[in-house]
Amino acid sequence: MAKVKSLSDLNKMREELQSKMNLREKGEHPDSIVQIKVSMATCGIASGAKEIMDYMINELDNRAIDAVITQTGCMGYCYAEPTIEVTLPDNKPIVFGYVDTKKAQEIIEVYIQTGKLVDGIIPVNYETVNNE
Amino acid sequence: MVKYKKQIRIALRNCGFINPENVDEYIVREGYAALGNALTNMTPEEVIDVIKNSGLRGRGGGGFPTGLKWELTRKVDADQKYVVCNADEGDPGAFMDRSILEGDPHTVLEAMAINGYCTGASKGLIYIRAEYPLAIKRLKIAIDQAREYGLLGEDIFGTNFSFDVELRYGAGAFVCGEETALIHSMEGLRGEPTVKPPFPSESGYKGMPTNVNNVETYANIPVILLKGADWFSSIGTEKSKGTKVFALAGKVNNVGLIEVPMGTTLREVIFDIGGGIKDGKKFKAVQTGGPSGGCLTENHLDISIDYDNLIASGSMMGSGGMIVMDEDDCMVSMAKFYLDFTVEESCGKCSPCRIGNKRLYEMLDTITQGKGTLEDLSKLRNLANVVKDTSLCGLGQTSPNPVLSTMDNFLDEYMAHVKDGKCPSGQCKALMSYIINADACVGCTLCARVCPVDAISGEKKMAHLIDDDACIKCGACMDKCKFGAIFIQ
Question: Which residues of B touch A97 (CB under 8 A)?
Fold first, then answer.
């Protein structure tokens, strides 16, 4: 990987990464890629986030659903771990809490495949500096 | 939706959004731009001025102005200086720093490099407890990736500034969160504090000037540089700027990691964000500042949270643990719990802390056994003040706080234990009696069979009786009774 040798290098790199990520997320099938983030801090993993992540990877694969699944750190909803954030194409991200494999299956079958909301949505209760 | 937007995430801005094991995602969210800009377009003095003007104060608990700390380290002349990140988070129930390190490790690396540029240090050390294996793993990945991109190492951003970061592991001793003890521990010595001055900014790691900041403090730095001091100081109260991350725990519905602007009230945190007390019970107290802090009561719910207000109310900001208690919690037991913790964690160097805390613990234990006297109460307060006044470091100087603040706010509970031999919340086992209501008891013998110490006697189909002296108050009989005939008094 190229080294960052100046501030303009960094800015260029950020733009490239941004467009690369846009491409990865929307590129081949602009309307069909689902993004899923699994909250995987120590606490999330302890309450079973790893199993959920594995389960979702397998399930989405079995059903041939195009999805990008990544891990993130703590989302802050400790009371509702494991938590996952699902972003359907052209939709706002939605956070689901108390996700076990049954719930994960429901999320895939109902929300991801038909777009209908299911129970267990955690309202986002903060602002971030990036989206002000 | 009441709780919407009570929170602003600055330190936690990337937690839960990016993959912490991929530097690219951090860069996309303006990562390392603050470092790049500082190195390319600003002098170290200018950077320090921004931090000073932002009003940022140390988030580890002390609340020392961060910019001033940086300036002090900068002013000392030395061949080698060090930047240290204090990731020795030890308060019971606190996990703010762990979450930042696990969710956004690069922000800490970036801020440490900025600090190195300001203070003239080329080496950074993160002191992290070995109990945080995932945070360590993600930090290692982050350091490797940053080195690969040339964001750590030689000639960063094409300037002649060089900086690298290494990890140092702590064994999880609470006292090592104190900066002098932390430095001794990193040097391979016993983790014991020494008298300040000299402050680490003059003589720290290996006798060299060392800037020690907490994880959360660092996590604020890149944003402040990107958005400016004015933006940051527009958030918060007059003397406490920005936001504070709290680990909200205990008897609230929505336990979790939250970040609120300074000046938010405790009521907003507990009832709006925390969703109120579990099972509709009544709020009793909230402990802030961990074992060094104090408990605040209903009367304090409307004070706005900042460093000075919390101290004025008899508690402190601390690193951000916030434990909520309801009507079922006994305040004497709570004080005893924290004392137990400090007795365990005292390094033993100075006698007020080593012996004094032990004696305080014993007195509290006597009181919870129902054997305390009024004289014990005055001794307790007296000794607590002595320990507070004469201990060497912050641990001992603050360890009696839970005792003093519960005595100030809940003296009636202490009195009930001592005078009436009763624990009003029914938590102190020695003061409870399990009693069988003879009218409701049908004599099924289930309780007698389940009792592990054979304290229950009675003929079949006749009312049973519990021998209070033999009873160990395990509650097994009450769980088993199908007729609700057993109650606690």
Answer: none
Judge if ipTM > 0.90: no
Q: Which residue of A has its CA nearest to B272?
A: A125
What's the pLDDT score for residue A18?
85
Residue A19 pLDDT grade (very low, low, confident, very high; cuts 50, 70, 90): confident
Q: Mind listing the domains of chain B with CATH numbers?
A: 23-228 (3.40.50.11540), 243-326 (3.10.20.600), 331-420 (1.20.1440.230), 433-488 (3.30.70.20)
Query: What is the C-alpha end-to-end distance of chain B, expressed in Å?
Result: 42
Cα B430 versus chain centre, distance: 30
The domain limits of chain A are 33-122
Cα B486 to Cα B466: distance, rounded to the nearest angstrom: 10
Q: How far is B155 from chain A (nearest CA, A)?
A: 8
Nearest CA to CA, how far is B131 from chain A (Å)?
11
Question: In the beta sheet, which residues pair with residue B152?
Answer: none
Chains A–B, number of C-beta pairs less than 8 Å apart: 143
CATH of A33-122, one of 3.40.50.300, 3.40.30.10, 3.40.50.1220, 3.40.190.10: 3.40.30.10
What's the average model confidence in pLDDT over A73-77? 90
Which of the residues in chain B have pLDDT under 70? Answer: 1-5
- Condensed to tens digits (0 to 9), the pLDDT of residues B432-456 reads 888 899 899 999 999 999 999 999 9
Closest residue to A10, CB basis, from B7, B33, B253: B33
Cβ–Cβ below 8 Å for A73 and B157: no
For residue B352, give how far its alpha carbon lies from the nearest alpha carbon of chain A (Å).
Answer: 37
